[in-house]
Specification:
Helix content is 42%, strand content 17%. By secondary structure, the protein is an alpha/beta fold.
Length: 207
């Protein structure tokens, strides 16, 4: 878990920096600067330097940042210098899209198992070839495998019970796509993704 002295908002920006570095590396770049990163991301160069200073010194004044070095360090800080197995609950349209999403693999994640409660879906395959398992076996499977990350892609009325099952099985990090705020222990980290909320945020500025 991240250092509690580092503000959560800072930790939330680190993956954005990591993504920008990967694009720069793909362009065969070797060096960048806080100014260049800031211009790309709409974040001030001073903020980027301040964020990174929580974790050490990664660049040299007048030289900038060596992209591969900074990328490797950010991966280590975020613990994505390894591949995390993720359990997906919900094999509807959203679950199908998540299971077949190619962007997880090169960023440290693999959907290792998928579960659903619909009888006609159980034992069928998702687009990526993953077999859909019965949600009744969720707790036992997760506990046995030791998975720590869960993605919830079920309707709102089922999300809390799914979260409870995952937490009971030892999951401590949840990515929740259901349009409901989950009640979880303080030891469990939850990230909420509700597209409608983000759209409503946008439309405030369109009035």
């Amino acid at each position: 878990m991240e250092d509690k002295q580092v503000p959560n908002i800072v930790v939330g920006r680190l993956p954005i920096y990591l993504r920008a570095l990967s694009f720069l590396k793909a362009d065969n770049r070797e060096i960048t600067s806080s100014q260049e990163l800031g211009d790309r991301l709409g974040i001030s160069s001073a903020q980027i330097r301040k964020d990174l200073s929580h974790f050490g010194e990664f660049g040299k004044q007048g030289t900038g940042y060596e992209i591969r070095f900074l990328e490797n360090n950010l991966k280590e800080i975020l613990h994505v210098d390894r591949v995390w197995d993720v359990v997906l609950v919900g094999a509807g349209d959203l679950g199908n899209a998540l299971a077949s999403y190619k962007g997880f693999a090169d960023r440290g994640f693999r959907v290792a198992a998928a579960f659903d409660s619909a009888p006609h879906k159980i034992n069928s395959q998702l687009p990526g070839g993953l077999m859909i398992q019965d949600v009744a076996n969720l707790e036992a499977q997760v506990q046995e495998a030791g998975w720590k990350i869960g993605i919830i892609a079920v309707p709102a009325d089922a999300a809390q019970s799914v979260a409870n099952a995952l937490i009971n099985a030892g999951v401590t990090a949840l990515l929740n796509y259901a349009p409901i705020s989950l009640i979880t222990p303080s030891t469990v980290r939850v990230e909420q993704i509700d597209p409608a909320v983000h759209l409503q945020h946008l439309t405030y500025y369109l009035g």
